[in-house]
Amino acid sequence: MRHLDAVDARILLALDMDPRATTVALADRLGLARNTVQARLKRLEEDGQLREPSRRVDPTALGRPLTALITLSISQRVGRPTSEAILRIPEVVELLVTTGDSDLLARVVARDTEDLHRITNLLLEAPGVVRSNTTIVLQEVQPFSVHTLLERHAGQAASGNVHPAVM
């Protein structure tokens, strides 16, 4: 994966601050050519560095106000089939491979605790899942955000204070 330069970081920061901004508006705000902004945004999307807008949707708006983090221990002989089965569960909104006492971390959203119980049972039915441990999220203090990192990267990259391996 190609690393972001200062211009990429500035574009993404401007887009983060105004997600509905047009390419022309971003170009004007940043003092860049429209074609430059458009080409860079296209490349960032193609490279998987600019993620899909559905990450902005609050699950509460979809009737899923409860969030839980579920760690899963899986049989080491089963990997891909386990992940594929888990990802077919619509309420699983994020799945991470982890180290430590568990192998996977699933962020799930549910209507209520009864619905969470149903989802947990579906997870346990996935091939290779041996055990689960559920933690209910009471309050989201800091939602996932790279805004501060973008600010730092845009400033460091522009001043040349970024380690060469990062660029």
Describe this structure in words.
The chain is α+β, with helices and mostly antiparallel strands and 167 residues long. Helices cover 40% and strands 19% of the residues. It contains six helices and four strands, in the order αααβαββαβα. A four-stranded antiparallel β-sheet has the order 2-3-1-4, covered by helices on one side. A hairpin with a 6-residue loop joins strand 2 and strand 3. The protein is elongated.
Order of helices and strands: HHHEHEEHEH
Query: Rg, please?
Result: 20 Å
Q: Hey, roughly how much beta strand do the residues contain?
A: 15-25%
Give me the oligomer status. Answer: single chain
The residue-averaged pLDDT reads 88
> Quick one: overall form?
elongated
* SS field, number of helical segments: 6
Give the total of beta strands.
Answer: 4
Distance between the amino and carboxyl termini: 11 Å
Residue windows where pLDDT falls under 50 for at least 5 positions: 162-167
Major β-sheet strand ordering = 2-3-1-4
- Sheet bearing the most strands, described? 4 strands, antiparallel
Secondary-structure-derived class: alpha+beta
Offer a few descriptive terms:
167 residues; four-stranded antiparallel sheet; alpha+beta
SSE topology sketch:
Blueprint: H1 6-17, H2 23-30, H3 34-46, E1 66-74, H4 80-87, E2 92-97, E3 104-110, H5 113-125, E4 129-137, H6 147-159
Antiparallel strand pairs: 1-3, 1-4, 2-3
Brief write-up:
By secondary structure, the protein is α+β, with helices and mostly antiparallel strands. It has helices at residues 6-17, 23-30, 34-46, 80-87, 113-125, 147-159; strands at residues 66-74, 92-97, 104-110, 129-137.
